[in-house]
Amino acid sequence: MRAKNQVRLSLYERGIAQSLEDRYGYTAADARELVVDYIAVVRKLAGYEQPAHYADLLHRARRMDQSPAKWLSHIQEVDKGEMIDTGIEAEDGSFYTNTFIGERRTSSLENECK
Fold first, then answer.
1. Are the beta carbons of 16 and 58 closer than 8 angstroms?
2. Which of 37, 45, 34 is nearest to 75 (CA)?
3. For a pLDDT cut of 90, what percent of the chain falls above it?
4. Global pTM value
5. Could you report the per-residue pLDDT of 52-82, keeping only the tens digit for each?
6. Beta-carbon neighbour count of residue 13 at 10 Å?
7. Could you give the CA distance from residue 47 to residue 62 in angstroms, rounded to a whole number?
8. By C-alpha distance, which of 17, 24, 28 is closest to 54?
9. CB 20 within 8 A of CB 59
10. C-alpha angle with apex 74: 64 to 90, nearest 5 degrees?
11. C-beta of residue 48 within 8 angstroms of C-beta of residue 37
12. Degrees (nearest 5) of the Cα angle 57, 7, 39?
């Protein structure tokens, strides 16, 4: 038995495997194996969408021969970009400053009522 097959899947991860069976006709063993193969990706991303969504992604990744390592590498690159992002303060602040920080703007309706 391979070591990676000894991964204990959470209820959510088992839901992904079940969705692979229901949607794509995987056997229970093949569905579990696919989830285990991509377990690092699943645990990095999962928890926010329905299990069927991640089943779709895993099925597509297998069809496109997208390795878990390549997928994780892409996730890490995106994370790095988010860490570097300086936020709204670094953007052209004219709209933000004038609209939200500067003097309170009066609406045209307020001007008409004066």
1. yes
2. 45
3. 55
4. 0.68
5. 999 999 999 999 999 999 999 998 888 887 6
6. 22
7. 21
8. 17
9. yes
10. 140
11. no
12. 25
Q: Position of tokens 């390795």?
A: 67
- Inter-helix orientation angle 11-24/51-63, to 10°: 60
* Structural element, H or E, at residue 51: helix 51-63
Q: How far apart are CA 6 and CA 3, in angstroms?
A: 6
Q: Closest Cα partner for 75 from 47, 48, 41, 50?
A: 41
Domain-wise residue ranges, the chain? 3-113
DSSP letter for 100, please. I
